[in-house]
Amino acid sequence: MGWMNPLIETGAISTLDTTFGAYEKFVLRSLLLSFISGKQKDGRMRATEEFLQWYGRYAAAVGIKIPQLDAASRNVCQGKSASQNPLVRIPRASIANNRSVAPVPSALQKRLDWVAQTLKLDARDACSLSAVCRLTQLEPFRSFSAAVSGHDEERDEVSVHLIGSLLGIRGSVLRKIFDNRGQLMQLGLIEDRGAADYAPSEMLLKLLRRRTTDPRVLQDSLIGEPVEPTLELSDFDHMGQAREDVIRILDGSLKQQAEGVGLLFYGPPGTGKTEFAALLAEACDARVVFAGEMDDDQREPHRADRLAHLSLLSAIGNRAGRVIVVVDEADDIFTGVDEDEFSNRTGSKVFVNRLVENCAVPTIWITNHPRRFGEAVLRRMLRAVEFTKPGKEVRKRIVDRHADVLGMALDVASRDCLAGLSASPAVIASGLRAASFGSGGGEMAISSALSIQKALGENEPPQPLRQAVPFAAALSSASVDLVALEQRVVEAGAGALSFLFTGLPGTGKTAFARHLADRLGMDVLQKRGSDLLGKYVGQTEENISRAFQEAAECGMFLIFDEADSLLFDRRHASRSWELSQVNEMLTWMEVHPLPFAATSNLLDQLDPAVQRRFLFKAQFGAMSPTQIEMAFQRHFGCAASLEALRLNMVTPGDFAVVARKATVLRVTDPAELAGMLAAEVAIKPGARKAIGFV
Question: By C-alpha distance, which of 313, 305, 387, 303 is closest to 337?
Answer without folding.
Answer: 303
